Structure formats: structure tokens, C-alpha cells
Amino acid sequence: MQFERYPGRMDLRIAVGIATTGRRKILHAVVPHLLDQSRPVDRIVICAAEKDDVDADAMAALFQRTSVVFAERGLCRQRNCILESVEDADILLFLDDDFLVTPSYLEETVRIFQRYPDVVMSTGTVDADGILGPGIPLDDGWRIIRSQSDAQPAGGEKPVYSGYGCNMAVRMSTVRGYGLRFDENLPLYGWLEDVDFSRQLARHGRIVSSERLHGVHLGTKTGRTSGLRLGYSQIANPVYLMGKRTMSPRHAAPQIMRNLAANAVKVFRPEPWVDRRGRLLGNMRAVADLVRGRLSPRNVTVLE
After folding, report:
1. Would you list the domain boundaries of the chain?
2. Start and end of every Glycosyltransferase 2-like domain (predicted)?
3. How far, in Å, CA of 42 to CA of 27, rounded?
4. DSSP of 58-116, one letter per residue?
5. How far is CA 39 from the centre of its chain?
């Protein structure tokens, strides 16, 4: 599918890419609001792992310039499939399937990339993040978005180490020019894939966070990887990224220690929505593999 510019439009073409697995209901509730943007989206690409993850006909009926593509389950694989499907986009905005954006989000994103040619990635301000708790109900998320929509976008951009994977836009000319891809050695949930991709891009330009881009991350709990696998990734992935030099020791080491400490302390009084025991067991198996010289992010695919 080729992009078509809207009549009279000479600005950058922006696509939205959404990787999804096992969240059909929330996906179909969230995608329609992308059509309420002050600057219309040029194209939407949804990459699912299974046919049951999305009603492709309903999505096409909702918005003619919607493509539904399929890839083997894994966030990095699915996002790479999206990258390969937007050959004509100038900007690609990756959104999680449970991320809500204010109506000016696309307009402000295009403004950033037009105004600053050296910006290769932008990420927004998350006004509420359900990933840190039990999750945010959809109706509550809409209320937060509506309260932000009433305010005129204000503020500026500041440099950041990496984008936040639930909402990050990339300059596709840079991605294409340097052949950048998400690392498929980070399987399944792809823990820290956003940091790895950000730091690849950071070699070629600036990464900024904008106070003019607002959204709500619902933190929907369905479709996520197991506690055991996530716990393993919490150790294996940052160690792997240090070896790639896409994550510095001063960023990786504190994160490893925070996760270890949180899982060890909270395993005795775990939150109902977090498998602390599974995460701690995953941490311990990763540490054991590290000592034996067998540590690899891909080991999570055989964990049970």
C-alpha cells in the first residue's frame, strides 16, 4: 500500500505502528481514537501474531489506509515487520496497543521532526502509567486524556537516553539509511528493546522527550509474558545490551539491582497483579547462567 498525501499537504508523512498479541478487545477499543487526531494519520499498520488477535476486515472498514500484517510472536519481530511495511513513511510512531494519545499528538510529533532535522526519535510525557500498578481501566484512561485535551499544548523538548517503547516516533530516513532493526535476540516481550533501538538511533542524531506530547499507558495485563521469563530477561537482557554497547553499565547495573531488590523484598507480600515469585526465580536462573557462562536472552524461549 502506497501513501497518498492529503490535498494541499506538503509536510511529513506519519504512520502509526502497533504490535499486538492476545489483546483483541483493547486493540479494537483504542485504534478508533487515532482517527480523532488534529493532524490525520497517513497510515496505520497493525502487526499481530495470530489471526484471532485482530479483525482485519473491521480495521480496514474503520480506516481505508490500515494494513494488518502478521509475524511470529515477539515484540522485536513484530516491530521489524512494521518497519518493513512503511517504506514510504517519513515518521513512524510506535504505540502499544493499550496506549491512548491526546488529539494533538500526531500534529506535535510532526512539528518536532520538521523543526529539528537532527532529531531521530521523540517520545512523549506519560500522564498515567498502568504498568506500574494493576492497570488503568479504559474509561479512566479516556478521562485523563480528555482532561489533557482541554489544555493547549505547552512546553518544549529535552534530551533523553532512550524513548519509551509504548510511545516513540522515529525518523525513517535514518532507520532506512543505516539499516536499523530491533534486535530479535530479545525474544517474546523484548525487555529493553526500546533502549537498544534508541541507542542505535542515538549514534546518528538526538533523542528527545516532549512536554507537548501526552498519553496514557493503560498497562493492560493480558498478553504479557510469564513472571519466570520476565525475571530472566530482567538480568539477561541488560547484560546482553552492555555487551553490544547499546546500554551503558551505569544505566544497566542500577536497573538490574533495582529489579533484583524489588523481587526479593516483595516476594513475601506480592502485589496481586505481579508474579514476584516467578520473577525472582527467573532472576536467580539468570544469575546462575551468568556464573556458568550460559547467559543469553534467548534462553527465555525454553523456560517453563
Report:
1. 14-217, 227-297
2. 16-123
3. 19
4. HHHHH-TTEEEEE--S-HHHHHHHHHTT-TT-SEEEEE-TTEEE-TTHHHHHHHHHHH-
5. 21
Nearest to 236 by CA among 296, 152, 291: 296
DSSP state letter for 52 = G
Region 189-215 average pLDDT:
96
3-state SS, 163-181, equals: CECCEEEEEHHHHHHCCCC
- Grid coordinates in use for 100? 491512548
Residue 156 is which amino acid? G
pLDDT of residue 136: 96
* Residue 190 clears pLDDT 80, i.e. is over it: yes
227-to-146, 148, 248 alpha-carbon distances in Å: 34, 34, 25
- What's domain 14-217's superfamily in CATH? Spore Coat Polysaccharide Biosynthesis Protein SpsA; Chain A (3.90.550.10)
Q: How many CA atoms lie within 13 A of 181 on its CB side?
A: 13
**Predicted pLDDT at 224:** 67
The pairing of beta strand 206-217 with beta strand 119-129: parallel
- Determine the pLDDT at residue 226: 85
Q: How far apart are CA 263 and CA 176, in angstroms?
A: 39
* Residue 6 pLDDT greater than 90, yes or no: no
